Amino acid sequence: MPDLRSIRTFPQLVSYREAELDWPLREYGYDDLTFEYQPADLGLKDEDSVKVKAIHQLRPLQAPVGVTPILKCWMELN
Question: E strands along the chain, which residues?
């Protein structure tokens, strides 16, 4: 399993959360797991927003007891 700092894709994030945190995420679809944002929604400047491919946030899920949600916002850059 990759180190948390080496995760670069959403599928890697899902695999990490399943393996390391025991979250059953594969039973959900991508749209079920995320919200999509536009760069303007987050106040990014136009010159910065052209570098952004997509911005997603994980939806709140029922986490196992004692597990703090991490990596809530996922931004893909060109």
Answer: 34-37, 52-58, 73-77
What letter would DSSP give residue 49?
Answer: H
* CA angle centred on 10, ends 7 and 73, rounded to 5°: 85
Domain ranges for the chain: 4-77
**Higher-pLDDT residue of 5, 71:** 5
The amino acid at residue 68 is: T
CA distance 33 to 71: 13
**39: number of CA atoms within 13 Å, CB side?**
13
Percent of the chain at pLDDT > 70 equals 74
pLDDT, one tens digit per residue, over 29-42 is: 878 888 888 888 88
Across the beta sheet with 52-58, the strand order is 34-37, 52-58, 73-77
